[in-house]
């Protein structure tokens, strides 16, 4: 079976879209919830009350250190 690339490229398709009146917009995303674990063994598990308290204490200590 012979694989022949199609003649139109991504740039051609983008140009055609823009020529027809399409426009490119920057998408808006929400920030990740801070209490979601992002390591492989924590993925999607929320922090416990003790872990949340520890994180909050670290953030407050960092704020005090900046002052």
Report on the architecture of this protein.
This protein has 67 residues and is an all-alpha fold. The chain has one domain (9-66). It has 2 helices and no strands. The protein has helices spanning 10-19, 49-66. The termini are far apart. Residues 22-42 are annotated as: Disordered.
Kindly summarize this structure in a few lines.
The chain has helices at 10-19, 49-66.
**Tally of helical runs:** 2
Tell me the radius of gyration. Answer: 24 Å
Given as residue ranges, the uncertain stretches (5+ residues, pLDDT < 50) are none
Strand content: under 5%
Shape: elongated
Q: End-to-end distance, in Å?
A: 69 Å
Number of strands: 0
Give me the secondary-structure category. mainly alpha
- Estimated helix fraction: 40-55%
Mean pLDDT: 80
What's the main sheet like? none
* Number of domains as seen in the coordinates: 1
Series of H and E elements: HH
Features:
elongated; single chain; mainly alpha; 67 residues; 42% helix
Note the topology:
Blueprint: H1 10-19, H2 49-66
């Amino acid at each position: 079976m012979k694989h022949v690339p199609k003649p139109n490229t991504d740039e051609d398709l983008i140009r055609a879209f823009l020529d027809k009146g399409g426009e490119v917009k920057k998408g808006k995303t929400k920030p990740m919830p801070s209490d979601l674990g992002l390591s492989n063994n924590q993925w999607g598990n929320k922090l416990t009350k003790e872990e949340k308290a520890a994180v909050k204490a670290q953030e407050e200590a960092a704020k005090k250190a900046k002052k």
